[in-house]
Amino acid sequence: MEEKHAILGKEREDQCLPFYQPLYFLLEKFESNERSSYEYVLNKKEKERLSRLLDQSLNQYHCVSGFQFSSVADMESPALLYNQLKTAEPFFLLAGPNVIESEEHIFRMAKHIKTIATKVGLPLVFKSSFDKANRTSSKSFRGPGMAEGLKILEKVKLAYDLPIVTDVHESIQCEEVGKVADIIQIPAFLCRQTDLLVAAAKTGKIVNIKKGQFCAPSVMVNSAEKVRLAGNPNVMVCERGTMFGYNDLIVDPRNLEWIREANCPVVADVTHALQQPAGRKLDDGGVASGGLRELIPCIARTAVAVGVDGIFMEVHDDPSNAPVDGPTQWPLRHLEELLVELIAIARVSKGKQRFNIDLSPYRD
C-alpha cells in the first residue's frame, strides 16, 4: 500500500489515504483467494457491497481537490507509455477477452493475464471491448455498452495497475473513451474513416489502427499520417489478415514488412487474423464468424520471427462458451506456454533488423 500511495506525491497523502482503504480491503480479498477474484464471495449481497466499495473509491479519488487518478499508467504521459512499448524487447502484449462479459469475468481475466505477462517479462496492455458493434447478426451479444463498460475497465485499471486498450466505432465516443483507455483502437473496417481517426488522435492517447481486411498495407501509411496531422505522434498499426475469397482470411507475412512504411510500431493480431467471417452456420439457420484457433501458434510464430513490435491476442478462460468470437480466442490455460515459445523465437530472430543485400557480382 505504501509504495502505491507514494506515487501521488506528499501533498496528496493526507487527502487520499482514506479513499485507498476500501479499495485495498477489496484487493486483499481478491489476492487472498487461490481460485479467482470473486469466488470467495459467498452471497450476492456481499459481492454487491464490495463492488460498491470500489465504486466509492473511484468516485472519491475523482473528488479530492479535482484530482483525477486511475492508475500509475494514467499518470504517465501517452508519449512515455508509447516509448516504453516501442522499445519493448522482444515485444509487448495486448491481450484480454474479446468483450466485457461481466465485471467478475474481467477481473478474473486481468488478474491471470497480468500474472502470466509479469512472469514471462512482457509489457502488458489489457484489452476488452465495451461494445462489439460490428456483429454478423443483430442477435449477437455486444457487451455492456460504453457507460457501464468504461466503468468496469476503469476499475480493472485501478485495481491491477494496467494500461487499457479498447475500441471505438464512432467519433462521438472518443472523448469519453480517452478518459479511461491508454490506447484507443480503430477497428479494421473503419481504418480509413478520417473523422474517427482525427477524433481519436485529439484525445492525445495512443491510437492503434487495425488494417482493413480489404486494404493493402500501404493504406496504413495514410491512416497513420491522419493521426499525426491531427497533432498526435503516438500511433501504431496492426495487421489482422486479408480477405481471401469469401468467409476466409489469410495472413501474408510480407505485410508485416511492408506495413513498416507507416513508420511506427507494428502489431500483429494473431487471433482475429484467423477468423472465417460469417463462415459458421448456426442451428437456427443463421451464420456467425468461425475461426481456426489451432493455427494461432503458427501465425504468432511467424509474426515474432519477422520482428513485429507487439502481439495482439484475445484470450479466454472458456473459449468454447465465449459469447463472441470463441473460435479465435486463445485458451488462458495455454497462454504462458505459447508466450514462452514466442519469446524464445523472437530472441534468436533478427527480424527487426533490415537484411542488407549485396548485389555486387560474386567473385571466387
Q: How many H/I helical runs?
A: 13
Q: Beta-strand percentage?
A: 15-25%
Stretches where pLDDT falls below 50 for ≥5 residues? Answer: 1-22, 28-42, 61-75
Order of helices and strands: HHHHHEHEHEHEHEHEEEHEEEHEEH
Q: Helical amount among residues, as a percent range?
A: 40-55%
Instruction: Count every beta strand, where a strand is a DSSP E run of 2 or more residues.
Output: 13
- Biggest sheet strand line-up: 1-2-3-4-5-6-9-12
Shape: globular
Provide the residue-averaged pLDDT: 82
| Structural class computed from helices and strand pairing | alpha/beta
How many angstroms does the end-to-end distance come to? 69 Å
Tell me the major beta sheet. 8 strands, parallel, barrel
Integer-rounded radius of gyration: 21 Å
What is this structure's SSE topology?
Layout: H1 2-6, H2 10-32, H3 44-63, H4 72-75, H5 78-86, E1 92-96, H6 103-120, E2 124-127, H7 146-160, E3 164-167, H8 174-178, E4 183-186, H9 194-202, E5 206-210, H10 219-229, E6 235-239, E7 242-243, E8 249-250, H11 253-258, E9 266-269, E10 275-281, E11 287-291, H12 296-306, E12 310-316, E13 330-331, H13 335-348
Parallel strand pairs: 1-2, 1-12, 2-3, 3-4, 4-5, 5-6, 6-9, 9-12, 12-13
Antiparallel strand pairs: 7-8, 10-11
